[in-house]
Amino acid sequence: MKSLLFSRFLLLLPWVLIVIIVLDIDSSRAPLPALAPRGGGGIGGSRPAAGRLPPERRGPEAALPTIYAITPTYSRPVQKAELTRLANTFRQVARLHWILVEDAATRSELVSRFVAAAGLPCTHLHVPTPRRYKRPGLPRATEQRNAGLAWLRQRHQHLPPPQPGVLFFADDDNTYSLELFQEMRTTRKVSVWPVGLVGGRRYERPVVENGKVVGWYTGWRADRPFAIDMAGFAVSLQVILSHPKAVFKRRGSQPGMQESDFLKQITTVEELEPKANNCTKVLVWHTRTEKVNLANEPKYHLDTVNIEV
Fold first, then answer.
1. Per-residue pLDDT tens for 280-293?
2. What pLDDT was estimated at residue 34?
3. In 10 A of CB 58, how many CB atoms?
4. pLDDT < 70 regions, the chain
5. Which of 15, 54, 78, 191 qualifies as a cystine partner to 187, CB 3.0-4.6 A?
């Protein structure tokens, strides 16, 4: 009799153990959190917006004003190389949103692929320059900068103030020190600083006395209202939003005068905020890539693979 009971006990034991294990697993299983929707929607094919930080980056960075960098770009052999250099800089800057505007009727595949892989909060826009404005001697990138301004205003028009942020115009052939972004982030209205390798000189700069801009050290037309390069100033987002008609003008504008024509609409020389140690440090350089020698490039593609450069 004992042997019979023992054999039945051994027969039932595995099933009892299985039931215990299953009940233990079910009781310890916690409900899964709901998945948040992925960012990246918006005008112009935006990647995740600069204002939406992942949880691991919320903290000191979340309190920083966002820097919006408007970069006009156009198709040429060095385009991808220029954008790569610029992206490598921007990736090291906290709370930066890149507004990349192509001079084209449609988004190019090259720039679209570049933006997708850049790993940056980026808005990719496009607008062509009318043919009549492509003649030598006329201002360039006017339509592209204005498209960036329009996107910025549209993005923020329905959001309540205050909206901390700073805008600057980052041409794709310039070189930037990371210190420059620390300087511009505290811009209250319009800030200024020197630019290297511009105007036929080693540098140009605002002349500062007692913390105020009183003149311009420049190699070209010191009589300009704002004798400054496009890379030499930043504007508070609040100023951009409070001056909705401030744009870069085509009619009556001359080469080298676009900066003055724009700044006259939003500020005065007396209101400018000197940065970079009272405008005595160069933190941005107007570098230009050497013209590429493609004399040996075949007229028709001869390689067995098609490589994007």
1. 999 999 998 878 88
2. 34
3. 11
4. 1-60
5. 191
- DSSP-derived pairing of the beta strands 165-169 and 66-73: parallel
Q: What residues act catalytically?
A: 259
What pLDDT shows up at residue 16? 53
Which residues sit opposite 305 in a β-bridge? none
pTM of the model: 0.80
Separation CA 132–CA 134 (nearest Å): 6
Instruction: Give pLDDT, residue 76.
Output: 94
CA 307 to chain centre: 27
Structural contact between residues 237 and 166, judged by C-beta atoms closer than 8 angstroms:
yes
Q: What is the 3-state secondary structure (H, E, C) of 79-92?
A: HHHHHHHHHHHHCC
Give the strand pairing for 284-285 and 175-176: antiparallel
Query: Residue for token digits 């099933």?
Result: 15
Angle in degrees, 0-180, between the axes of helices 109-117 and 79-90, rounded to the nearest 10? 20
